[in-house]
Specification:
alpha+beta, four-stranded antiparallel sheet, 3 helices, 4 strands
């Protein structure tokens, strides 16, 4: 099923190095990395949608924050006519799969420019992320119905 990438771009990016230069000169241990991923899709026109991949990597060494890198990387995609639920699945699985290599490179570059070794994110399982998102939405809907 063809998914056409019309454009891709950095929508928002930030890098915080709150304990520099001390953290850069005194750290001998590997930082602990906490990675958060959020995927969103919104329709722009018939069969055209924007997919946003929000990545937040926070590195700590001991109790100190080494860095916080945040990136919202997005793309505009055209997809074939599909039922809405299938469109959403295609957008939130295949869209991020196409965007991820570029977002990974940007994260590696900004951590390197921040004075750290490049953070090379491991490949992500976007099918699993989509399943978790669907299950979380179903749980929220169940809770909302239980309180109504």
């Amino acid at each position: 099923m063809p998914l056409v990438v019309n454009m891709q771009y950095v929508k928002d990016m930030s890098f915080e190095n709150p304990n520099a230069p001390r953290i850069l000169t005194g750290a001998s241990e590997q930082p602990k990395i906490d990675l958060q991923v959020d995927l969103q899709a919104q329709g722009l026109a018939d069969n055209v949608a924007e997919v946003q991949m929000r990545l937040r990597a926070e590195a700590t060494i001991g109790e100190a924050t080494a860095f916080i890198a945040e990136l919202v990387y997005a793309g505009v995609f055209t997809l074939p006519p599909l039922p809405p639920e299938q469109q959403r699945a295609v957008l939130l699985i295949e869209g991020p799969r196409l965007l991820f290599p570029f977002a990974r490179q940007i994260i590696a570059e900004i951590t390197s420019q921040g004075g750290f070794p490049p953070l090379l994110l491991q490949p992500l399982d976007f099918v699993d992320l989509y399943r978790r998102q669907v299950l979380a939405q179903q749980a929220q809907m169940g809770e909302a119905q239980g309180t109504a």
